[in-house]
Amino acid sequence: MAARVDAQQRLACGGSATGSVQGGTDTYTLDIPAGSVGFVQGSLTSGDVGTLLIRVTGPGVLEETCTNVAVFESNGGPLTLEVSSSAACGGGGGAYRINVHVVSASGDNCARTLNCGATPDGLGLAGPGEVDSFRVPGISGGAIDLRIQDEDMRSDSYLVRVYDPDGTRVMHTCADSVRVPTSSGRDYTVLISACGSDGPGQYRIERIDPRCPLGPTITSMAFLPQNRSFVLPVAYDGDGRPIYLSNGTGTIVVEGRVGSSGRGIAASAFEFGRSPPFQSIVSRPLGNGDAAVCDRDKVPPGGIAAAVPFAFRTDDAAVDRINDLGCRYNNGQGDPVGRRDPLNSCVRASFAFVDPTTAIQFCADLIDSERFPFGDTILAARMSDLDGTFGAPREIVVRVGGTPPPTATPTHTVAPPTATRPATATPTRTPTLRPTRPPVTRSPGPCTSDCDESGAVRIDEITRCVRIALGRSPLEQCPSGDRDGSGAIAINELIEGVGNALLGCPPAPARN
User: Fold this and answer.
1) Looking at 120-216, which runs of residues are DSSP E strands?
2) What are the tens digits of pLDDT across the range 340-357?
């Protein structure tokens, strides 16, 4: 058999490689330290139907399989991975991808820590055969719930594999919601990949267990440019925060849904002298960092002070900082509250929330006097339910300019409650007029946005069309959204689709 030219390509935890086998063998060197349980998945991405022959050898290790997956414990020393096609595995081979992970709870496990709440936008399988890896702390004698929300409607479910701290597989299922019994408080490893023939796609995964806050879940959080067009993060930092590039000004968008408490979400982002139900803080001053509350209309206008320490606290100074940023949120009518109507979404060219499970959206337009400084600034937010119970916080990074030197990661602590000041005079705010929408046009003929041609347009079909218009999904998912056949869904076609959802599809033209 012929060996590939780069036969000594080294693959460590989290590494992947692509190649092609057609009657030959590709060889790699694996970097899996002693005592760690290694996981190798090979996936044919094109070519003949069948599976790959995967062979791992080394000191005390001999693992050979036609199942596309090899799991083994490293004893130290060099390990060799061979990938080939074989008649015994049912096919002649073709293009493939190899993924390598550590699935035991060792220091060599490179999986991303899965915190309470939902993961941010932009997480997904970038190509066929990709595998994402997460670490979840177990509960001795308890269970962890995992929910997966498909973002671009390419898959009904994902393949979920769970390994216990010793590297033994405890779950292997295609599902969008699973409960994982755990017998140890150590870390479990969760692998997410495509289910069957489903292709790559965007998703969120949410961890729910008794240790997580019961309040609302933040479903989406982003910093958009001044034109409010939706953008994805450019990267993630070492702590898993999504990074958004910016010139310093733009729009904060935070969305949420009801949490485990089952109680509704409180809407206010500003309660002068008291802690508001929706809270957001920044790790560095915005603008001139003026500590005065709600000083946008001052001459000259003031900025926003940083939360020092960077934590959600209840002392008077911390409450003032929360309210100073909170009064910049706007529901489209000049009030510092959330938007409950998806038709009033603040994202440009969108009449739906970013996440289809969202119940409320908070939007804050930051102007030049509230500009983010050069470098990286962390923005954190959290929501509370109607009983005052907060959910897990979410953080993003707003990056202005080039990459700054690394800084220490703030530690989140919530101080014990302290007495708050009684409310005093509320500062005067200049109302912002609600934007006027163009009239909805409804013409006889094929029903715009009726993706399944059922004769009615549902909200999920509007959401699908919005994602197509934003370039996040292919037109093939709803050809009827493109009424004029231009190859894209324009804003007037979105508006027409919304009208069909609200008023019903127009009658089909009479036949002669």
Assistant:
1) 131-137, 142-150, 158-163, 169-175, 177-182, 187-194, 203-208
2) 999 999 998 778 898 888
